[in-house]
Design brief:
The chain is α/β, with parallel strands linked by helices. The protein is built from 9 helices and 18 strands. Helix 4 packs across helix 8 (216-225). It binds zinc ion. It comes from Bimuria novae-zelandiae CBS 107.79.
Length: 406
């Protein structure tokens, strides 16, 4: 996944995900919650609103995230390296072919075509690192200092003839079976390539790319480069699936439902503001919500309901279906979770609320207990945060949901 728990790098990550990527322009006006009613709300066109009382539904209550949106083309240079103590033992094609299109395709699906991940591989040769793979303490005690030495050594090995201009992130891939480079991790610290280009994020891949998680490792780590946090706990002894089970690959790469939460798609600008309906005032409102995995232009149902519960905290309601990136999902229905823009990696920024605690969940150990968290028609969930969600009906992949804000 990302890095060894409690390593010094973990602390670094918390800092990294809370700052804007240097090459990103200041984003246009993340709007604070307002009481402005949206006369053009698509939600109002597709669902009946409980008439009395009529709560205010704001056009947007977009959280004040520290990074995002990210749409358009995102270019990743791909550098292959080997070591004096571990020369390359395969062709580059054997490493590159499995990742050449799958991660890009997944981002295209999850972003509804709004993000295009373009890989720019340097396929000529493996660049020989100046030091043995064991010299970076990578698998034992990788620090920011040794990580940056690893990255700068790789860039120096590539030399000034390799251009890194117009590159958003750098991938460094080691030989297969180079066990010292065991896991994949990332940094948002600027590095300068020999050609003079400044690279603002770098992902160094390890053996987990080949043997544990596969190509989705690239989506997870690139998610960090886009500003998304790890959703699993960093604290020692905690289950990886504690907070989000098998939802969203930022929590578990091998998730049964790897598509990103509406919360993340909202941050990244993959959801338009009108696709997230904000409920600000007390009362009961009814909403049609469309499945997060697909675009359905014929009905244009919103993709989520957001209920702010503090200056940074929200109750979020979305719909999961076994479609698109979640085609293999066992847990579908109306998913309710909390999200907090003030919490970073490892701190539980998103926490699924289980509608069936103690059920044992569904799926094959991919998130276990929380995987069957979604509500079905006729079910109700009191979040304990002054928000109750009731599922009234299902039409195609849409659900009709009643949200009571006390
Ligand atoms: Zn991570």
């Amino acid at each position: 996944m990302c890095q060894a728990h409690n390593s010094p790098l973990s602390m670094h990550w918390k800092q990294r995900v809370c700052r804007r990527l240097p090459h990103e322009p200041v984003q246009a006006n993340p709007r604070p919650c307002s009481n402005t009613k949206s006369p053009a709300s698509k939600e109002q066109n597709t669902a009946s609103i409980t008439p009395t009382p009529t709560p205010t539904i704001a056009a947007s209550c977009r959280p004040n995230w520290s990074s995002g949106p990210h749409t358009g083309t995102f270019r990743a240079a791909v550098l292959f390296v080997d070591f004096p103590d571990f020369p390359a033992n395969t062709t580059i094609s054997e490493l590159y072919d499995p990742i050449a299109s799958a991660p890009s395709s997944l981002f295209t699906t999850m972003s509804y075509g709004k993000l295009s991940l373009e890989l720019v591989p340097i396929l000529d040769r493996f660049f020989r690192m100046p030091s043995p793979s064991s010299s970076y303490d990578y698998s034992r005690a990788l620090t920011l200092e040794t990580h940056l030495r690893y990255i700068n050594d790789a860039l120096a090995a590539a030399g000034p003839s390799v251009s890194f201009s117009d590159i958003d992130t750098l991938y460094i891939i080691p030989p297969k079976f180079a066990d010292e480079i065991s896991f994949s991790t990332s940094t948002g610290v600027d590095v300068t390539a020999p050609d003079g280009s400044v690279i603002s994020s770098t992902i160094t891949f390890g053996q987990d790319l080949f043997f544990s998680w596969g190509p989705k490792t690239i989506n997870h780590e690139t998610g960090h480069a886009l500003g998304l946090p790890d959703l699993y706990p960093y604290a020692a002894g905690e289950a990886v699936t504690k907070w989000v089970g098998g939802f969203d690959l930022m929590g578990l790469i091998a998730a049964q439902a790897p598509d990103l939460f509406a919360w993340h798609k909202w941050q990244l600008g993959w959801l338009e503001e009108e696709q997230v309906v904000c409920v600000l005032e007390a009362g009961v409102t009814e909403h049609r919500i469309g499945a997060i995995e697909v675009v359905d232009e014929t009905r244009e149902a919103p993709k989520a309901v957001a209920v702010p519960t503090s200056s940074t905290g929200y109750v979020m309601v979305e719909v999961r279906a076994a479609l698109g990136a979640d085609a293999g999902a066992c847990g579908t229905g109306v998913l309710v979770y909390t999200a907090d823009s003030a919490l970073g990696s490892g701190e539980g920024p998103v926490r699924v609320i289980d509608s069936k605690p103690g059920s044992g969940g569904c799926g094959d150990n991919n998130g276990g207990e929380l995987n069957d968290a979604p509500l079905q028609v006729g079910e109700e969930l009191d979040t304990g945060l002054g928000v109750v969600v009731r599922v009234k009906a299902q039409e195609w992949n849409d659900f009709i949901v009643e949200v009571e804000r006390k």
